[in-house]
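Side project, low priority. Logging it here so it doesn't get lost.
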Amino acid sequence: MLMAALGTSAAAQEMRREQFPEGSYSPVTNINRNGYPRVLNDGSVMFRVNAPQARSVQIDLGGTKYDMQQQGAAWTVTTKPQVPGFHYYSLIVDGVSVADPASQSFYGCSRWSSAIEVKEAGMDDFEVCDVPRGEVRTVYYYSKVDESWRPLMVYTPAGYNESGRDYPVVYIQHGGGEDHRGWMEQGRTAQIMDNLIAAGKAVPMIVVSSNSNVRSRNGGFGGGYSWQGMQTFRSEMIDNIIPFVEKTYRVRKDRKSRAMCGLSMGGGQSFYIGLRSPEVFANVGVFSTGMFGGIRGASDFDLEKEVPGMLTDTKAFNRQFDVFFLSCGEQDPRIEYTRNIVKKMRDGGVQVRFNSYPGDHEWQVWRKSLHEFAQYLFK
């Protein structure tokens, strides 16, 4: 019934010549570049869905629902202006949430969702440019934790195949409800790295994106904002992923040539695993984590308890890390808690870099976080 009710806007548009609003554009996330959705001059988004048999249609854009109005076979709505960046959305047709067949789908929010990309001026480093380009490959390693073959997506910089040299490595973690594809697809890791390296702003490096949704056959999940909750994924990272990468790729195998970073849930993993494993990592990036506060269940965060020695032996802590970087979106509920914890660290003498960017808990903030973090590494 749903498929009968829902037609693609692309199919409907092939039957007629569309007159799009002046100045609007088709985002790169569209299937049909001459179709809907359309981003308008003010950043609002116009949706048009062909669903002649539907009784009601809504757009759920980042958790805000918009009622669409029927005009013949089509349903239309224009949203409020959106901040630049990448936004998940779904159609709700007669109460059923589905992906929009007019847009590409991405794995996020624990499901396949449509997405729309709203342009931001001056962000050419997030685009494919005329520079030497690296490669992204999906490879599989055997996990002794999960007792299964698991995927990695690995970025190797331009010239890797020909150079014969060894490279430093960034192990980058996705957020809750996403997986190993997030950073390479939604996060545009390859584009960011290609452009930074070509401009001489970052050294050539390998970036490894793993799926941290791992369960131990003996029980335990790889999440949770606590040292204990991180043990399953810590074992996966240190005992399985890193040895596989160092056996398979030409990489430098010292701690100063390894970095760990991540967003949200992955930021918590990077905080605990990275900062409590200085024998493995000398560089740590934590983007938009909620463990300091701003999410349900977060409470007063005791830095010394969670990272012993951070405040009581700060000089030793600082010597262990070449780069320690935190970031957060300026409209993210986590921002004030993050600023407060950075102040507490700095007041205690911890050498931590921090930056915030316009945006909420979303990919444009995380792209900018990686863009900045990568420029500090391995120099």
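Brief comment: The chain is about 25% helix and 25% strand.
Revisit when time allows.
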